[in-house]
Amino acid sequence: MRRWRGPFIALLILALALPVWAQEKPRSGGELVFVVPSEPPSYDAHQEETFGVIHPVAPHYSTLLRVDPLDKTGTKPVGDLAESWTVSKDGLVYTFKLHKGVKFHDGSEMTSKDVKASYDKILSPPAGVKSLRASAYAAVKEIEAPDAHTVRFTLKWPESSLLLNLASPWNWIYKADILAKDPQWYMKNVMGTGPFKFVEHVRGSHWVGKKNPDYWDKGKPYLDGYRAIFISNSAAQVAAVRGERAMIQFRSFSPPERDSLVQALGPKITVQESPWDCLNFVSMHHQKKPFDDKRVRRALSLALDRYEGSKALSRITLVKDVAGIIVPGTPYATPPQELEKLAGYGRDINANRAEAKRLLREAGVPEGFAFTFKNRGIPHPYEPLGIWLIDQWRQIGLNVKQEILEASAYHPMLMRGDFEVAMDFQCGFIVEPDLDLGRFLSISDANYGKHKDTVIDDLYVRQARATDMEERKRILRTLEKRLLDDEAHVVYTLQWHRIIPHNSRVKGWTITPSHYLNNQLDTVWLTE
Amino acid sequence: MHTYLLKRLLLIFPTLFGVAVVTFLLIRIIPGDVVELRYSGDRGAVSQQLLDQERARIGLDKPVWRQFATWIWGVARLDFGQSMWTGAPIWQEIKLRFALSLQVAVMATIVAVLLAIPLGVLAALKQDTWIDYAVRVFSIAGLAMPSFWLGIVLILMLLIVFQWLPPMVYTPFWVSPWQNLAQLIWPALAVGYRYSAVATRMTRSAMLEVLREDYIRTARAKGLMQKLVLSRHALKNAMLPVLTVVAIEFAFLIGGLVVTEQVFNLNGIGLLFVQAVAHRDYTLLQALVMLVAGAFILVNFLMDVAYAWLDPRIRYR
Q1: A78 in a domain, yes or no?
Q2: What is the ipTM of this complex?
Q3: Confidence (pLDDT) at B116
Q4: Is the pLDDT of residue B317 over 70?
Q5: What is the mean pLDDT of residues A12-35?
Q6: B38/A407 touch (CB, cutoff 8 Å), yes or no
Q7: Largest CB tally within 10 Å, which of A12, B40, B205, B259?
Q8: Smallest CA–CA separation between B239 and chain A, in Å?
Q9: A217 and A334 assigned to the same domain
Q10: Which of B43, B264, B278 lies nearest to residue A49, judging by beta carbons?
């Protein structure tokens, strides 16, 4: 009897595990229907800035590298068209080997010539063609295609962010011959090497893609096709998911919307959540008194009870984590115990506010000092955050009036510098310090507070060129302390929190901190 | 009659020109422009150089008078240009949406007329009885409830009671009548009810006025059947003000269902209006205002023709 016990237990484990395994095995077929809250103005991702392009159009394209679709931190580059790559010892030469037999949707073969032509367009676009992210590739000296399946990037200096920049979800690979004839062709046409072929776009209504049977990654995609429905109204988006007219919306829903879906659909809905690489921070105009004084700026940060704020606000809007300059849970994020050492991040709020009042007195700011806080008229999370900030600042004796600006008037106001204190924002497409922190450089067009700080400029360059991860972390900590504490150039609020409640039939999709990532849909499948 | 119609026709051109000037200037007063909105994006970081380059590309760097001259010359040749947001020709942007809005407007008008005329006549005939009170409560409720709110209630009812939601994507009637009606009947009911409320009250008051006229009393004294008195003498004369209300509401529905279209996610002219304003898409917005103004002018012209047909005193004047 005893000799059968081992095999019996093994069989029992297998039998118990079998349903789970069978359930999780990707199944082919079906059409994924998803909601997109915005619509693509044009189809050329190199020239666009909105996720409204990425969500419906990305499944038609491949990129050289991509961010691992299964990595929740959204920071791990893996090959897409690149099969493998090597980096020279001095960190200046990156050589990529491409998959063979990759075909464009018109049947022609994709080669290194196409990768080079696409990157040439991104790095140095022809006259009349825009490239919104060219500055991220300032380190690239030269791109070569020595043979049909090899691409070589030579850099002017080592750059730790290069691989993630080459995994950018915006850098779709286009066909070289088409670009040579008309570099604007991709503004109005779709033709890539991605897992889905283009079927139709009905403006204001929907976008349809069908499975590419010649996709290079054999066995994928699992879906027969997808349909993206454009719905701008958030109540209608929730109704679409609740009424099972759509299965998922890839940007985010708010906590009350999540709760209503969970309550209505129960086990039919699965919720994925993640810290989001978007953040609202307060910009203070450094050329306007008293905000030219760092003691006043620090006081504004010290007044905030971020931990209690997180508890209350995360129930009603899209914010949650108390964070520094890097998204929590990602490789360069500051550990909580270290974060607590920064001004305004300590747990003792009474001590923080006493210090804030002392600093204001020292700077000659009287009790009841009044200023206007300019905010953007968007419900989530701008408006609740604005109300919270005003309440917190009142507790250190400041009298703050909020002025809400309509979305189209808000950005020109920031650019003109027509504010004393304003809500500012940042949203990254990959969690990468080079991409997220560039706006704090003295020369940046997005440095709306107009601070001039050569120390930060220098630290930024040093972290960008640091090839050792630990060294880069140390530099980033120093930069963070200077930006948020010593000089308090800006006041960070709370990290945005991404919430994706989706139909439980949707499998093979993993949330990341960026709503620009993981939209190729090649790994997504539907249960019966 | 011909001079009357010709005068009405000639009035169309100065009216449209006035609309064009006012629209062109008003939308340029609103802060922000299409370039800033398109490229400020989520990151909020864009160079001034890029913004200037884009403004020059779409002609926003030119003096306002020159922009107006270029645009109005295009309009005179029925060329409304391209959308500043998408770069697509304006007619393409409007074509699909117009079909949907027109269908909703027609369906809502049918709902409204089918409700308003019988109810209005009935209320007038049974003045101050419980039937009259019931019709008045029904019509006042229609006026008090915004159609978008009624739309939300309809959607929630369908979701909660029937676990069903109307289709989210428009299918033309000739492709699938069932799909088409399954999507559009709900907004048509929501809008048609409010629309019927206005028309019911107008029908009732017009009928009450007409029923007291001498010629109705004469017709009855001559022994004409009540049915004939109503259909031949009373209703035709009472229809003049009702026709005005129905026609103006119809023209309004072409571009005025801004919120209702959002609630039902209808890809119509109303939603396009919202997007054009939100994107500061000047060319598209100008074309839409001209379209709606054109619809109002056309409906008014047809109403004038109908008035002349219904009331001979107008055409002989």
Answers
A1: yes
A2: 0.83
A3: 94
A4: no
A5: 70
A6: no
A7: B40
A8: 39
A9: no
A10: B43
